[in-house]
Structures are given as C-alpha cells and as structure tokens.
Hints:
Layout: E1 3-9, H1 15-23, E2 32-34, E3 43-50, H2 57-61, E4 65-73, E5 75-77, E6 86-88, H3 97-104, E7 109-113, E8 122-123, E9 126-127, H4 128-133, E10 143-156, E11 159-166, H5 172-182, E12 187-197, E13 200-201, E14 206-207, H6 216-219, E15 232-234, H7 237-244, E16 249-250, E17 260-264, E18 270-277, E19 282-288
Parallel strand pairs: 1-14, 3-12, 15-17
Antiparallel strand pairs: 1-3, 2-3, 4-11, 4-12, 5-6, 7-10, 8-9, 10-11, 12-13, 16-19, 17-18, 18-19
InterPro entries: PsdUridine_synth_cat_dom_sf, PsdUridine_synth_N, tRNA_psdUridine_synth_TruB, TruB_C
GO molecular function, one term: tRNA pseudouridine(55) synthase activity
Pfam families: TruB_C_2 (PF16198), TruB_N (PF01509)
Amino acid sequence: MFGLLNLNKPAGITSRSVVDSVHRLLPRTSKVGHAGTLDPMATGVLVVCVGTATRLVPYVQELTKSYRAGFRLGCRSDTDDVTGSIVETVDARVPGREEIEHALQAFRGTIVQTPPQYSALRVGGKRAYDLARTGVAVELVPREVEISHLELVRCDGLEMEVDIDCSSGTYIRSIARDLGESLGIGGLMTSLVRTAIGPFRVEAARSVESLTAETLRDALLPAELSIGDRPRLNVTDSQATAIRQGVKLVFPSSNPSHPAVVAVDPAGRLVGFGEYEAETGRFHPRNVFHETSAT
C-alpha cells in the first residue's frame, strides 16, 4: 500500500502506539511511520505514512501545525503541563484579558524558546525525559521557532484557551510556561488538540478504532497533500517518467521562487522533490515516487 492517513489520536496513548495499530492491519514487512509526535495527553491530527510514503515524513513535518491549547496561570509544573508535579503560586494575582493579550505579543513571529525538561530531545544519546525522571537536570539549547498565528479565544480567571499556528519543533508547553513567567505567576498547559497539519484537518480525521484491514485502503490519501505551499514545477508525462528515472532535465522558462521545488505531472500528482538551479534551469531530482496514487 502507498499513501497517507489522517488520524485523530485519542488521549492516553502514544503516537507510536497509533503506528503500531496501523501496522497490525498490514503485512509484517510493510513500512509505517508518523509525521510529528503528539504527547500522550494530546489529541488530534496525526498523519501516518504507509509504504514508500514513509519517505514523505520529513516533508509533512515541515508543514504548518495548528493547535487549540488550554493554559492555566498561577502554577508551575516540572513537565510544563498538568501531567507533572504541580506547584501552585501563593496568592497568585489574576491578570486581566488586556494584560494577557499584551503579554502574548512577545510570542508572535520568530521567537526563541527552550524545550521542556520532559521532552523527547536527545542529550548525550539519551532522551531528555528519561534523564529528567532520574532527577538529572539537563541544559537544553534554546531554538528558534515561528509562530504565525496566536489568538486568545477564551479567558476565564486563570484559565485560558489559545489557537496557535506554528512551525515544526514548537513546544506549546513552553509557550504556556514562558507566558506565565512573563506575567510573574507561572503557567502550564492543561490540554492540547492538534487541529491541523497543513491540509490535514481534524474535522476530516478518522478515528484509529474505525480502521480495519478492509477499510484501510479507502482511508489512504494521495501523496501530493504533502506538498503544501512549496513551489511546483509542472512537467509533462514524458518528463515525469524521466525524472522518476533520475534524469536531470532543463526547464529554461521556469523560475521558481525557491530552489527547493516539487515536480508534479499534468494530473497534479506528485513526481518528486528536488532542487532547481536558476542559472541553468536544471531540475535535480532528490526524492522521486513511482506510485501515482494512493493504493
């Protein structure tokens, strides 16, 4: 089989367990992988790639991610969410909506954030959360992330909800923590729903329980959904065949806005990802796909 699954991960299970559930419905030699981990407490869109579509994982991961998150001010946690050891802030004041809105301005655009101590990042070959559970405090390197949209949708005392569109690698827990610190009262994340990854939306996501060996094939989505807003190079059927064979073709009349482009055939189907040389007009295929539809 070949294609993408848009699944709605339930709370209380890992992203890996969702992949395992899909794999059990396929032949043992099948390849299955997910594009973007959700913590066990989180729900929502989990894109699972099947067959050689697992090579699309890094491209899906680069798509913009959207979330609806619950934050609680006036407390702190060692995990930066409600699953950890929570310490209430004594006599925490209740900031008004206007003050919260003002504080949120610092979290829009390109920001630098430090990942949570309890994260899946590797430090010296070990997961940060494994080190944290043994009481080892590690120094995690701050990273730049892009927050393209951040909206306060509900504010009720110390409880609030926000909608966030962000780049890959963003920790929503870190935003809750850092927002609370900027207000001087602490903060943590109480809930998280991934509402979208690029064109994959939670409203259209299938439940993991609804998948069977018989329904899996019909649930597969086409590979071209992984393209997102990347520049496209439109090619003919004969050019698509050549590109799939690794041939570097010249397209002198093309002028993509970015050197990393995607070749698509006349039907709009994914041919492959590659690089375009503006000086020569030559397209260098890097990752091609022989499958033309979800099967």
